[in-house]
Amino acid sequence: MKLKNSQIDFIEQDLRDKGILFDDLREDLVDHICCEVEQKMEKGMTFMDAYLEAVQPFKKDGLLELNEEATSFLNSVTMIRSYIKLTIRNILKHKVFSGINILGLSLGMAACFIILQYVNYELSFDRFHPHSTSVYRITNNTIRDGGESFHTATTFLPVAQRIKEEYPEVADYNRLYFLDRHAVVSYEDRKFEQEAVLYADANFFQFFSYGLIKGNASDVLQSVNSVALSESTVLKYFDNNDPIGKLIKLSEEFNDLTLMVTGVFKDPPANSHLKPQMVVSMSSYENLPDVRENEWNWPFYMNYVRLQNGADPVDFEKKLPGFVTKYIPQRDETIYSLSLQPLEDIHLYSNLEYEIEPNGNAQLVFLLLGVALLTLVIAYANYINLSTARSLDRAKEVGIRKALGSKRMGLVKQFLAEAMAVNVLALLLAVALVKMFMLLLFSYAGIAIDLTIYSGFMFWSGLGIVFLMGALLSSLYPAFVLSSFQPIAVLRGKLSYNVSGQFLRRLLVLFQFTTSISLMIAAYAIYSQIQFMRDQPLGMEIDNLLVVKGPRVNVIQQSGTTQDPFILQTIESGAAIQASVSSSVPGIWTSRISGIVRQGAQDGKNNAFNVMGVDERYMETYQIELLAGRNFQASVDTVAFSVMVINESASSLLGFSSPEEAINARITFRGRPIDVIGVIKNYHHYSLKTAIDPLLLYPIGDGSKEYYTIRIPSGTEQLERSLANIESNWKSVYPDNPFEYFFLDSSFDAQYKSDLQFEKIFTAFSLLAVFIACLGLYGLASFVTMKRTKEIGIRKVLGSSVKGIVMLLLSDFSKLVLIAGLVAIPIAYIAVDNWQSQFAFQNDIVWWMYLLPIAIVLFIAMLTISVETIKVALTNPVKILKYD
Amino acid sequence: MYPSQLLKGTFQTIILKLLKEHKRMYGYEISQMVKEQTEGEIQLPEGSLYPILHKMAEEGLVKMEKEAIGKRVRRYYSLTKTGNSEAKFKVEEFERFIGTMRRLLLPKISGGEA
Asked: Where are the strands (E) in A254-342, listed by range?
């Protein structure tokens, strides 16, 4: 008797249901059982009886064991192939869940990778030098008249040299003088502006490792007037010709040198606080009479020392006060102290005066790392949530498998394999996402990263370990929960949705939403604080102001400010509405002095004042309001420290009760009398991150003409014409000086650059965290809704409205989100308050700034849940209930 | 029927021997043939038959061909070259084993009779 196709299908399906998933085995068994059944039916049995009898001997041995036994005989390749097949089948069977799992995980991973790359880059600074761990920079702290301390990254020229002579624990030293502005370099008849020029001791290329390509590290900077150039500089000056032995002329502040090129080095890597393009031998500089004379007066030099192996920097630092007493000449009321700063810490932890470049901020870097890890944790929480939620579905499978004799470890292994597959898929997607979006994100946030640097083995293996740990931890829990089900309980339907980890799921959802709401609140607070600082009136007008950096070489000596030929010409030519020259401009450091008091007063000698030289056009150019007294007059006020205009803060610090009271009052600077001739309204010389300091303005002298500020007519066309005009004036007045300019509004705004970067990255990752959390919520909500489909059908039959049903389903999760919001408020408040405390001018925290993010997240969450629930609520109950 | 401990090691030999004689067989056929030839004294448990076949296929002793019979697939097994020599070796080995067993057991029995 031949079996019908439907009977064969039945056998095939039943075996499959019993867990015989291994195709080869199933084919064998189907054929075998069919033969057996056919025989038995020929003897007159019914199909069902025959089948049950035929399948009996297999049951005794345990069908699943058979499956496993058959599988375990296979070599690992076949086994993996079948695992992959199983996994793909499982993933495709639950498209939504798998999609959400994989997408969520990969987003979290991608976010984490990107931030890790950034953090890794920030941490990699200056670690490429072979002795980087034993190199220290000597920093200098100066306290004058018991006032504020002035901590510089630089100190006096002879310091490192003397220290090396004095202490045996110092193995080597190197001193640098880094030009903080462009120099002018000429080769034959061509002239170039050159940045990043530094003078360095002869052992520079041995002390640091800036890959010398041509020349010998030990003698390239040995002789006077020798210079080593970076590859790109060589290209700029000499095209492809051999530069060695060529002569170039360098003009800068102290020097006018003819230098011979003796070496070429690779372009410095981006992850260094020191990125020289041109290194000139220190011997060409240190023997200049001016420099020699002032070697203990000018603290402008980077001094680096390398300690001997085993020397303790803490112990060594204790000897430095003795060194100061012995070598640094005593000055009245001035206290110097030296300290050591590890080379590797400079980029992230150092924020001193006279840094070579603005450094990174360790706090922000680690904060971002925290946000990235939180995003990853949220993604993994999703994963755990969805897997355990689905456990009810899989509980039956587990129950049957166990009833058929599967062992727990076998099930754990299989679930782990499935979890790993999802993780690996997510990882692949994450790598693709990183490739696509990393550069975009970095350029959006304005972070310049040298992409060739962080592909080190350590980085990737570290990443691999983190990934494996995460994958294992996130999959272990579901695997053990799933495999722990008791077959009897499951198959009797005793295992309800409520007991299968609902508490954990709620906790995880709560965690996810607390985190993402906190992040949202913080992101919004950061945004509004920065916006607040940028929007506040500054007390001056910085739009349409062009700033030209003052001349460095061949400064024309003139007396008084009226005659400044560049200003006169510029105004006359119509290129400027107003123009002014000063020793600083808003956003750029002024000098700081102490020792200023009202005449006769004893107190207040330690108060620090910002002080800068300005001409009589300064206030008009910047539109700063004069509250009392008068402005400088070009012909009258010519002596720098005899008259001053002060701001409100200075006026009250000096003890004047009103601006008027200050006029014509006399103050003294270390005994020298000064007349206060005017009081100006406070204006923000620096960003709103800092308070408005007391400011003293004095009539500028020729030596301190650092910046020309030019108010130009608005409009792009006007601007271009003015700019061309101003440049030609510049060339005629200061022919040997580069024309370097910037716009004050953007340079002032640049003070917020790092804050804006932080804001952008923070916002991006907060949104991502919310998105991932919602993704998880969607999965969970649709699962729960699915489980409650029957309940919904019955409710509808009994007369519930669609609205009522949707509300019912929404309320459950909304409550969670609301609780999360309540938990998030104090957390976010403390964090935001902490972050804001670094700013002198703080945006008031308004209640809705906390409620708005909660409302937004709640809205998104509701929307997420509604998508599924409304669909089910609208379904005709007949369709739901018909088949039961 | 013999206890299964006694038989366990012999299943592969039995299958090899049958395949050597009949060239090409499917699983059910093998199990039926064993039952018939031993008059039910030896029954190849279904739970062991297929794993052993799969294992031998994996080891390259047998090869498998599929044949569609209506809706279902029948999998025929036959010996490979190595399978052939393995069958020969296994049968010889088993005969040696039986000889050894006989030498081990018979003297005692005959001694008892004497």
From this structure: 255-265, 278-281, 302-307, 334-342
CB contact under 8 A, B51 and A70: yes
- Below-50 pLDDT ranges, chain A: 73-75, 453, 497-498, 559-561
Q: What is the pLDDT of residue A160?
A: 94
Measure Cα distances from A207 to A200, A203, A212, A276 in Å: 10, 6, 12, 14
pLDDT of residue A67: 59
Euclidean distance between CA atoms A798 and A282, whole angstroms: 93
Residues facing A709 on adjacent strands: A547, A580
pLDDT at A481: 74
CB-based contact A34 B72, cutoff 8 Å: yes
Strands (E), A660-733: 666-669, 672-680, 695-699, 707-711
Give the list of residues 6+ apart from residue B12 with CB closer than 8 angstroms, or none. B52, B56, B90
Inspect the interface and report whether the beta carbons of A31 and B27 lie closer than 8 Å.
yes
Tell me what pLDDT residue B114 has.
37
How many CB pairs below 8 Å do chains A and B form together? Answer: 65
**Three-state SS letters, A716-775:** HHHHHHHHHHHHHHHHHHCCCCCCCEEEHHHHHHHHHHHHHHHHHHHHHHHHHHHHHHHH
pLDDT score for A177: 92
For A161-166, the CB contacts below 8 A with 24+ separation are A162/A323, A162/A327, A163/A138, A163/A303, A163/A305, A163/A323, A164/A305, A166/A323, A166/A326
Written as six digits, the tokens of A158 are 């002879």
Q: Taken in order A477, A481, A482, A484, is the CA torsion positive or negative?
A: positive
Of residues A279, A160, A138, the one with CA closest to residue A208: A279
Across A63-100, b (16+ Cβ under 10 Å) vs e yields bbbbbbbbbebbeeeeeeebbeebbeebbeebeebbeb
Dump pLDDT digits (tens) for A129-154: 988 999 999 999 988 776 777 889 99
What residue has token string 């005794």? A60
The answer to whether A467 and A427 are in contact (CB under 8 A) is yes
Average pLDDT value over all residues in chain A: 83
Tokens at residue A31, please? 């054929």
**% of chain B at pLDDT higher than 90:** 0
Residue of B nearest to A74 (CA): B58
3-state secondary structure of A86: helix
* Prediction pTM value: 0.69
Whole-angstrom Cα distance, residue A139 to residue A248? Answer: 33
Check B50 against A31: CB less than 8 A apart. no
pLDDT of residue A77: 57
Q: How far is A18 from chain B (nearest CA, A)?
A: 15
Q: Which residues of B touch A78 (CB under 8 A)?
A: 58
In 3-state terms chain A splits into helix, strand, coil percentages (rounded to 5) of 55, 15, 30
What digits encode the pLDDT tens for the residues A659-671? 999 998 889 887 7
Q: Which A residues 11-70 touch B at CB under 8 Å? A: 24-25, 27-32, 34-36, 57-58, 60-62, 65-66, 69-70
Predicted pLDDT at A754:
81
Q: How far is CA A11 from the centre of its chain?
A: 61
